[in-house]
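agent> fetching stored inputs for the zinc ion docking request
agent> found them:
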Amino acid sequence: MKKRGNLKILLSIFSISLILPVFMSAQTSPESFLGFRPGADRQLADYNQIMSYFRKLDQESPRLKVMEIGQTTLGKPMIMAVITSEENMGKLDTYRGTTKKLRDPRTLSADEAKKLAQEGKAIIMITCSLHSSEIAASQMSMELAYKLAKGETPFDAKKVLNDVIVLLVPTSNPDGHQMVTEWYKKYVGTPFEGGPMPWIYHHYAGHDDNRDWFMFNLIESRNLTRVFYHDWLPLIHIDEHQMGSTGPRLFIPPFMDPPIPNVQPLVWRGVNLMGASMAYDLQENGFSGVVNGRSYTGWWIGACDDTPWLHNSIGLLSEAASVRIASPIFIEPSEVPNSVYNKQMDFLDPWPGGWWRLRDIVDYELTLSLSLVKTASLHREDLLLNSYQLSKNSIEKTDKNQPYAFVIPLKQHDYPTMLKMLDVLMMGGVEVHQAKEDFTADGKSYPAGSFIVKMAQPFKPYAWALLERQKYPDIRQYPGGPPQPPYDNAGWTLPLQMGVACDEVKSPFPAKLEKLEKVPYPQMLASQGNAAYFLLDSRVNASYSIAIALLKDKAELWRTKAIVTRKGMEIPAGSFIVKNTPDVKKALPSILTKYHLAVLDLDDVGDIARSSIKFPRVGIYQSWRGSMDEGWTRFMFDEQGIPFTTLHNEDIKGTKEKKVDLKANYDVIIFASENPDIIKSGRFGGGPGGGPGGGPAGAAAMQASQYPPEYEGGIEKEGIEALKSFVEQGGIVVMMNAAVELATREYGAPARNVLTGVDRTKFFCPTSLLNIVVDNAAPIGYGMPKEAVAMFASSLALDTFAPPYDWDRKVVATYPDGDVLASGWLLGEDVIARKAVVVDAQFKKGHFILIGIRAQNRAQTHGTYKFILNALLYPEAAN
Ligand SMILES: [Zn+2]
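agent> prediction call returned; pasting tokens
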């Protein structure tokens, strides 16, 4: 029996290999390459294995080609596989060109578009495991590639891959993938198996790598954005994620309310069509627990899967229930929440509970990904033609409340930051024009050189959504009930975040315009370099970078104490005076070119009131609980060229062997937004020995820790004392957002958060932009405009009070007494009106700088960076 069976198999293999070309049988499966099946319990392929596997398939299959699309933050190659028929593979440039042409109707007649749609291919993109602990998709990607290349699909792969070009990115965060796999493998078989890492899984951003898709701070975001909106312009994109463990097994679109208004209805219809097709194919194959229309909204928040909507593409998200990285979990049926226990129209086939494994997620994702490829083939021609129609609508139709254009005036508070904004807009595919002559728009005159973003452009929805002020709809949990929070940001208006002047213009205006091909960085006409002194304007963020670079090179610098008038210009308080020396003269040209900034020559500074400054030795605190705000703080410092040292708990509290002397080593210590309990004890609620205000210690202490013991604890009582002594001796401690309460709670800084204990029916402000009023004569407010905008994200409103002996306080910024909201959603503005936002609390010889908002939120809020930068260059800080 056995022998005959084998012979039969042998014969059939033989006959197949006679019929099929040799390559069809020569492909290595992921299982034989890795030595385990992708998704097997407690097994993970790391990034090197994934790359090697894809490269092997590239060699073995004419249907797959691996491309490097750039490097990662930590220097790894970032790869993308192109999978399509052999015939298409030879004509990729032609098909990219077809898509590009269809996306710009200004160069195309309807008949030409129709012809191109008939000839073109549907380019679709699948990105995996942007969130590195949501690791299943990265493992799935190898099997997906193999099945497509080999033709092991539930459809005719030859036909489908002739219609479709699949762009497959096995992981959108390779550095994080490597961190997570290494951490997991290290602790498999220990009590910490499958637990979280004590640090964030993107060097700078952690989970926020999915809030970067309009700012493009991260190199990985830029690599993929070039594919999205410059090189390939896929019609459909899906980003595959994971969510919590006990709810539905899988979310796929449709999304829930509210939709962002700028997106065209046909885009949402496409999203819903693809979602329904995936759900249909999943159901057909017996996958239960698939939900839609819940949790994930159509309100854009700068996430990777949402940004395509605003570029007239179909943007999709899948969210599978998680396991513990690669370790299976068991969900008791009684643990399945009530909301997903019964059949409902948005949840037709409840999952009953039981074992849940990495391989289960891989199977769901494999099925939905193949479904998407198939559906793209079925709709190839209409998807292509609709991409033309959507672009045509963008340009030719005028939507409700649509402005004609946005004008970015030449005169800016901080010109180089405005140029940075242009760079970011153009990276996202926005067309920007520059005026060649003076012009008038909505009754206001603008000089030549001003920038214009016209709404009549292919990616209108995107440009519009970034430049306008958001009005988040007032959605309640039930009529008259408390507000229903948005998924994340309610507002993000880019010019407001960056402190860039930008006017919305309603009516069309004539102007002589030229389209920008690149950001027009000015040619730096460095001064002759012979003046005795130079002046750097405190309104410009780059001035701080230059000042720090020069101080580092031992230059002599001061900050002005009041407005200086020179050559008809008013230069605000806090500007930098640099003494010219041969070293300065040598260093200046390259530094000014780097930061796109000019200096003003000064011959005599005798009459200018000024204070000396010195190079700040900066420490940034990093807990073992992975604070994204800390990561973004490092990003901001690296971007601004400011050196710093990362401080862990022991560096602040010292050890038995080593006492620390913070003042001997640092001038400024920064705490990014983090719960004060975490900073002090490493646990919410304070844990054992949490101290006053630490909350009930028992509950936290009962929880078994998910972290190895070396990552337990906080700065403890010793660290609190060490920081106090640091400030007493003249040190500066910056506490941001949530960390502000460490200063009020532990040190008695003369301020109190009025929002503590205020419930949602009285005050509610999900991440939004709020107006603030700044005292720019105060050192921490130097260089700021009197009226500015700040990002409120679980932020504070402070009541200050006359302090006891040893303390003083200076309110640097407050909310205004009315019209507090700038963009987003705010209920109960009277609760925070006139309250303090930024306070300079002096204690003995030093300062606690309390910044109650997110001054460097996701490295997007360049408009409030100066609150932090000023703390670094505090005039006459005690030595
Ligand atoms: Zn995710």
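agent> quick read of the result: Residues 246 and 336 are 6 Å apart (CA to CA).
agent> awaiting further instructions
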